[in-house]
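Hello again, I could really use a second opinion on something today. I've been staring at a protein lately and its backbone has me curious. Can you walk me through what the tokens say about the fold? Take your time with it, there's no hurry, and the full record follows here:
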Amino acid sequence: MRFAWFSWLVRHFGEYGYSQGLLRGAIGTLAVLVTAALLWFALHRNRPAAVAAAGAVSALGIGWLAFH
């Protein structure tokens, strides 16, 4: 499943906001993932909240990068 999702993302790479270049897309994605990790560590005592918040930040951040 993960491989299929990754291959789909690679095929449609040009359709998303990553068209400004691989470096800018990688930096933006890394920034979103670091933010999600920091949120996870901030909420680590309440695991369900940490998972939900980190997942939401990741999805919204990468989604925003993809369409803007």
